[in-house]
Amino acid sequence: MKRILDLRITAVERTSQTSVLLRAAAAEGALPECRPGQFAQLSVEEQGTLLRRPISIHEARDGEILFLVQEVGRGSRWLARRRAGDVVNAVLPLGHGFTCQGLGRGERVLLVGGGVGVAPLLMLGRWWREQGVEPTYLLGGRSKDHLLRLDAFREVGRVEVTTEDGSLGERGFVTDHSLLRQEEFSLIQTCGPTPMMKSVARYARQRGVPCEVSLENHMACGVGACLCCVTADREGHNRCVCTEGPVFPAELIMND
Amino acid sequence: MANLNVKIGNLELRNPVMTASGTFGYGLEFQDFVDLSELGGIIVKGTTLAPREGNPYPRMAETAGGMLNCVGLQNKGVDYFCHHIYPELRGLATNVIVNVSGSSPEDYAECARRIGELEDIPAIELNISCPNVKQGGMAFGVTAQGAATVVKAVRAAYPKTLIVKLSPNVTDITEIARAAEGEGADAVSLINTLMGMAIDAERRRRVLSIGTGGLSGPAVKPVALRMVYQVAQAVGIPVVGLGGIMTASDAVEFLLAGATAVEVGTANFIDPAVSTKIVRGIDEYLARHGFSSVTEIIGQLE
């Protein structure tokens, strides 16, 4: 069930020059159950902003919830300036997350992330691992400084990396990585910049592997009321990202 | 608790707070947050005779104290509403009002007629003021003649309570309100969004896919309040006030300006539970000032 609740920030850790990890807990009572790929609408009290900010749930377990916040505008900069003890109001959990069951033990899932789009993949990988499915992460960034929380991902699964400048892992984009030519997966799940997700979806289609993509469209309500966040599907129908998504089967919305 | 009942045409509201079309979905989306039976009514998404895809993304831009949208009446059409959505709404313990839009008087009338057949929909809100569609929509709402033509056609097809939603994008809104009243509207609601624009200087681009959109939120409240005040003086039918209502105090201001009821819109995005908080806040205001009924403050400026 979706709830409006106050979260108390318990710790803030810088993860790059332009991003932070917020650790939080329910100020009162328990956190509602959250699934991988869902998001929260966090309220922002900053002059010049009005709306909440949709932020992906990075991890939620044992009464703690984590958010990776990339500083891109006034709202996210305000969130990134929070300190331990501060209270942030949240509406959560929202949206339709990733598929996180249905693979058998020994099957392999590839989780491809770029930039702050890696956020939902941490919890997703843990869910798979708890079902005996070993996740492989393929994470990309401009340079090693743009790869967020690699150590946390390494605790969940094997991590392969690409950087555009070659400062860590293989040089190039995620879709250039050698593992894509050498290994087979039963499912690919991705979140990151649209061009990256499009090329991942193209790779998956060529290989005949099911693929899910997670969108980060701008939103107003986050609950399916305003229809501001839509994305056009392959047939030209506008789909509501905050309720039908943010995770969609790639073949539903990407065909190029 | 004060008596909060108000009446719009034949429509009895348990309190003057409704939710504005396009900001509350079909109500079902908000059931985790509010007890819908605590609301005077909910005005569900704009419905048209034929399905509409609306405008392309991006459809929204945040602005100082407000937001622009150019959704463009995306909806699955009146048949889908009647067969798939209405059955889910029948059990709701509040007034469910359908916002009806169209691109010709005939479209509006036929859509209204179909909604009129639905036993548990006691009223419609006629949208002659959507700024985000090319044909119809606001085109009918910006001239007295246009408004009269649509209201007349719908009035002939729809016997229940008819609320006409007015555009603020006009020189004299009282003229349009009087035209609607003259053709048999039971009430007018105002204001729909104010047409605006957002530009991304860094990219040197228009932010919204169609360039312009409708402004809502606290930024428009003073304009809305002024127009509600003017229209309430100009017509004899009830006025429903909306535009930037975020708090109970905002709602009370609209009632004092002459509105019989109010609609809460953009505020639902910021606090999904705000509508029922506003109901309770109005009650507290009445108690604090010693009024026993909300009707005692409607249009009662000193």
Fold and architecture overview:
The complex is a heterodimer of chains A (256) and B (302). In chain A, 18% of the residues lie in helices and 34% in strands. Chain A has two domains: 3-94, Elongation Factor Tu (Ef-tu), domain 3; 108-214, 3-Layer(aba) Sandwich (Rossmann fold). Chain A has 256 residues and is of the alpha/beta class. In chain A, strands 4-3-7-1-2-6-5 form a seven-stranded antiparallel sheet. Chain A has a seven-stranded mixed sheet with strand order 11-10-9-8-12-13-16, with helices on both faces. Chain A has six helices and 16 strands. Chain A is globular, with a radius of gyration of 17 Å. In chain A, β12 (187-191), α5 (194-207) and β13 (211-214) form a beta-alpha-beta unit. The longest helix of chain A is centred in the C-terminal third of the chain and has 14 residues, at 194-207. Chain A has helices at 74-80, 121-130, 150-156, 179-182, 194-207, 250-253; strands spanning 3-16, 19-26, 39-42, 53-56, 59-61, 64-70, 87-94, 108-114, 134-141, 158-163, 170-171, 187-191, 211-214, 231-232, 238-239, 247-249. Chain B has helices at 77-89, 105-116, 138-141, 144-157, 173-182, 221-234, 248-257, 267-270, 274-288; strands spanning 6-8, 11-13, 17-19, 41-47, 60-63, 66-69, 95-100, 123-127, 161-165, 187-190, 194-197, 199-200, 205-206, 212-216, 239-242, 261-264. In chain B, the strands form four sheets. An eight-stranded parallel beta barrel of chain B has the order 3-4-7-8-9-10-15-16, surrounded by six helices. A four-stranded antiparallel sheet of chain B has the order 5-6-14-11, with no helix packed on it. Chain B is α/β, with parallel strands linked by helices and 302 residues long. Chain B is globular, with a radius of gyration of 18 Å. Chain B has a single domain (6-51, 73-193, 216-296), classed as TIM Barrel, CATH 3.20.20. The longest helix of chain B has 15 residues, at 274-288. Classes of the chains: A alpha/beta (256), B alpha/beta (302). Chains A and B meet through β14 of A and β5, β6 and α8 of B.
